[in-house]
Amino acid sequence: MAYTTVPKSTAQFAPEIYTGNGSSKTISTLNFQPDWVWIKNRATTDMNVLFDSYRGATKRLASDSTAAEATEVQDLTAFNTNGFTVGTSGAVNTNSVSYASWNWKANGAGSTNTVGSITSTVSVNTTSGFSMVRWAGSGSLATIGHGLGVVPKMIICKSVDTGGWGIYHEATGNGRGLFLNIDGVGGTDVAYWNNTSPTSSVFTVNFDGGTNREGGDTMMAYCFADVPGFSKIGSYTGNGNANGTFNYTGFKPAWVMIKNTSSGGSNWRIFDNQRLGYNVNNATLYPNLTNAEADETSLDLLSNGFKMRGTTNDLNGNGQTYVYMAFAAEPLVSTNGTPATAR
After folding, report:
1. Is 1 a residue whose pLDDT tops 50?
2. Preceding amide of 280 cis, omega within 30
3. For a designed S-S bond to 251, which of 57, 121, 323, 328 qualifies (C-beta 3.0 to 4.6 A apart)?
4. Are residues 154 and 131 in the same domain?
5. 78 shares its domain with 145
6. In a domain, 341, yes or no
7. Does one domain contain both 237 and 255?
8. How would you write the chain as a 3-class SS string?
9. pLDDT, tens digit, for every residue of 127-170?
10. Domain boundary among 77, 104, 131
11. Which of 103, 83, 101, 102 minimizes the C-alpha distance to 19?
């Protein structure tokens, strides 16, 4: 049975749906103060906007863009003890429009980490296997301390200046870079991770602008490790069948992000347990696109993982390889022995 050291997943990560009011609005339904908040307008074309407590309220990045950090005083305006406050920006708070937010807990302002060749600032939540890392880019080979104490299996990097979103995923390996802002399969080059896998203390970057931009630009990395019963980072092979691939996570997923790494033209996809509300109807949003939410009938969220129910190439093409990252709504078996149920 998949017991866990994180008995209450919603104290570490939670999707939260809210409806805009066109004025200042506070979302106060989380069980923690979020340090990384990702918001997407469900109804219309709008950016995926991401905020973290390092860079501070009003400082946004967009996962579907290579644009530099922007200061928007009417975006997310405050991180609160049980949620966040948004202003009047259409990206976060149009009247009567529904928004998806995905929220992670780190550890506030963090502390200095001198383990790597470049000193970093690290806000780490070792309970949930999540850390936010900031350093000054060097444009050359370097190691960066991440503070997790275990090996991260996925790392999402972005310069606060212009540039793409560089991604390390254990399944694609240390010689390949993926990019959150595009639908391509990434590239194979020493420039990304220097063909060097992360360790329990550092990850290695080289001269690519998406992982270690030169000139002292501020770099951000969001690092994730597997935590039994709470988070799972893995891969699968599609079968092109409506009775598709099953992926065991050991928990009831609250959030799943998937990418085809075999074929270009396949979008990143995000599913969560707060939108629609029954299998197989699990609506999707796209980290690399500004598109509105789309209906999807190709995936089941189960008590112990997720299963493909369609043949779309984005999710379950025959012989295609996919990577994913998932977080729990609740463990398969809680500390009191109660089993989870499927959606």
Report:
1. no
2. yes
3. 328
4. yes
5. no
6. no
7. yes
8. CCCCCCCCHHHCEEEEEEECCCCCEEECCCCCCCCEEEEEECCCCCCCEEEECCCCCCEEEECCCCCCCEECCCCEEEEECCEEEECCCCCCCCCCCEEEEEEECCCCCCEEECCCCECEEEEEECCCCEEEEEEECCCCCEEEECCCCCCCCEEEEEECCCCCEEEEECCCCCCEEEECCCCCCCEECHHHHCCCCCCCCEEEECCCHHHHCCCCCEEEEEEECCECCCEEEEEEECCCCCCCCEEECCEEEEEEEEEECCCCCCCCEEEECCCCCECCECCEECCCCCCCCECCCCEEECCCEEEECCCCHHHHCCCCEEEEEEEEEEECECCCCCECCCC
9. 999 999 999 999 999 999 999 999 999 999 999 999 999 999 99
10. 104
11. 101
State the residue range of the domain holding 241.
231-331
Whether 4 maps to a domain, the answer reads no
- How big is the chain, counted in residues? 343
Domain boundary pick from 180, 202, 224: 224
> Which CATH number characterizes residue 216's domain?
2.60.40
Q: What is the pTM of this model?
A: 0.96
**Residue-wise pLDDT tens digits, 4-45:** 889 899 999 999 999 999 999 999 999 999 999 999 999 999
Q: Do 218 and 161 sit in the same domain of this protein?
A: yes
Given a cut of 80, whether residue 3 has pLDDT beyond it is: no
Is residue 338 situated within a structural domain? Answer: no
Domain total of the chain: 3
The pLDDT tens digits for 109-136 are: 889 999 999 999 999 999 999 999 999 9
List of residues 6+ apart from 337 with CB closer than 8 A: none
CA atoms within 13 A on the CB side of 277: 3
In single-letter form, the type of residue at position 324 comes to Y
Is residue 81 domain-shared with residue 54, that is, in the same domain? yes
